[in-house]
Specification:
8 helices, binds magnesium ion, Rossmann fold, about 25% strand, alpha/beta, single chain, binds adenosine-5'-triphosphate, six-stranded mixed beta sheet, globular
Length: about 220
């Protein structure tokens, strides 16, 4: 799936004043491309990722998925798009504390009543992240890095057309960070998944097809 961002502006109110966090972002991400977004803390990377992934709306400007504005879709179609086409991994993963690792991974298919047929695949995904023997644990009985990998498995279970990841290796040691990068590369290569990854890690960033640099809410055009 191809994503286009057209003149994205995002402002937040802070007290009486308004802060412009994204100042007119234009970027096109081709179907099957793996791009990384880098930039200093506070430059707007997470804000941009939320908007590109339909989780937040821009103050003005447009995001298009294969030419379609997701916010022009009706509620049901927007939910379908998010559930079946888009995978998310957040900077601060959001596992449900009362569900086991496996149940968390099976949440997206559960919404479509496909959790039973997806169970083996979920266990395989967890195993590929080194969590084979931890599938039935609650998140609080997993380490931070294990929780992060579980959140990744959940993002991948529906084989999304696009994967958005906000610092997916941020909480991981180098071996587990490498594991995640290799899995991203595999999914990108084999399933042609478009990947948009925010990262602080320059070595991981360079492994993407393209690196775009965000400076103070503006894309450094020399990086486009
Ligand atoms: N909901 C909000 N309300 C007000 N300001 C916000 C909000 N969300 C983000 N900001 C501000 O927007 C700016 C960009 O935030 P953002 O989270 O996008 O940065 P980032 O590049 O992801 O940083 P980091 O590398 O630390 O994760 C920051 O100054 C932040 O304080
Ligand atoms: Mg961030």
């Amino acid at each position: 799936m191809k994503i286009e961002a057209r003149n994205i502006i995002k402002t937040f109110k802070s007290g009486l004043s308004e802060v412009q966090v994204l100042k007119g972002i234009d970027v096109t991400i081709q179907s099957g491309e793996f791009i990384s977004i880098v930039g200093k803390s506070g430059s707007g990377k997470s804000t941009l990722l939320y908007i590109l992934s339909t989780l937040d709306q821009p103050t003005s400007g447009q995001v298009l998925f294969d030419g379609t504005d997701p916010f022009a879709l009706n509620e049901d179609d927007l939910h379908m798009l998010r559930n079946q086409k888009i995978g998310f991994v957040f900077q601060f993963h959001h596992l449900l504390p009362e569900l086991t690792a496996l149940e968390n991974v099976l949440l997206p298919p559960r919404k479509l009543n496909q959790h039973l047929q997806k169970q083996d695949e979920a266990l395989e995904l967890l195993a590929s992240f080194g969590l084979a023997d931890k599938a039935h644990r609650l998140p609080r009985h997993l380490s931070g890095g294990e929780q992060q990998r579980c959140a990744l498995a959940r993002a991948l279970i529906m084989k999304p057309a696009i994967l958005f990841a906000d610092e997916p290796t941020g909480n991981l040691d180098s071996a587990n960070g490498e594991l995640v990068m290799e899995l991203f590369e595999k999914v990108n290569r084999e399933q042609k998944t478009t990947i948009v990854m925010v990262t602080h890690d320059p070595d991981f960033s360079k492994r993407a097809d393209r690196e775009v640099v965000l400076v103070d809410g503006v894309l450094d055009t020399s990086s486009l």
